[in-house]
Amino acid sequence: MPEITSPYATGTPCWVDLMAKNQQNAIDFYGDLLGWQGRPGSGGYAICELRGKAVAGIGAVPEDQPETPNVWTTYFAATDAPATQDTIAGAGGSLLAPVMDVGDLGRMLIAADPQGAAFGVWQAGEFAGARLVNEPGTLIWNELHTADVPTAAAFYGEVFGMNFEPVEGVEAYWAIKVAGKTVGGATQLKNDPPGTSAHWLTYFSVDDVDSTADALIRRDGTVLAAPFDMVAGRMAVVADPEGARFALIKPPSR
Fold first, then answer.
1. Is the Cβ–Cβ distance between 250 and 234 less than 8 Å?
2. What is the DSSP string of 88-108?
3. CB of 85 closer than 8 Å to CB of 94
4. Quick one: which of 57, 146, 192, 202 could link to 152 by a disulfide (CB 3.0–4.6 Å)?
């Protein structure tokens, strides 16, 4: 079911957010493109909603930290953020922002894996994460792009209990599973444009990839990989007006 009513299992992507240099422009852009409603709340952070359910966050790059990357960050659920932080360090990852409390909502940290792909960790308090997923206008997939899949698999296995399993019939693609359930995917970085660094790519579901990509262009976004068909449906890789990359996808009709 697209509406999430139970806690996210450890290691499951539970939230995505964006830090934008112009927060209101970003809120307007994604609102127009994906139908979100959002406005800055406590601390200036906007929890964007679709039909009254939280789907993603958009924050503002701090004025004293202009170097903050303009990227979509994938957060993985954890029950003990400090312990996860220690495990990340022990497994060869690096800490970008240490554990911090977010009021009564929960606790978070930002880290990077041994190859530099950044990700977040979220320990739920009153806020568990995305309440609506896997339908148009919401998060549907999180994909690791990495140069060394075995090293990545060992790291995420130690930190979150993930298993990377080759997908039969798809060259150089791995399903990421937690407790036997597929929660994301992994691919080799060599398939990305030269110079691309390791990263997690956020996919949003849409009803029509081609028309959404056209709308994105009209709103000053950029199409990085034009709409194409593949085993999981029709997709495109795009960027918002500030350059934050994400993917659009329409899964095959069932």
1. yes
2. HHHTT-EEEEEEEEETTTEEE
3. no
4. 146
Query: Which residues make Cβ contacts (< 8 Å) with residue 147, sequence separation at least 6?
Result: 115, 188, 189, 190, 198
Predicted TM-score (pTM) above 0.90: yes
Instruction: Please name every residue paired with 114 in a beta bridge, in sequence order, or none if there are none.
Output: none
Q: Tell which phi-psi region holds residue 162, choosing left (phi > 0), alpha (psi between -120 and 50) or beta.
A: beta
The closest alpha carbon to 207, from 138, 148, 130, belongs to 138
**pLDDT tens for residues 16-71?**
999 999 999 999 999 999 999 998 877 789 999 999 999 999 999 988 887 878 89
Is residue 7 helix, strand or coil? coil
Contact 82, 42 (CB under 8 A): no
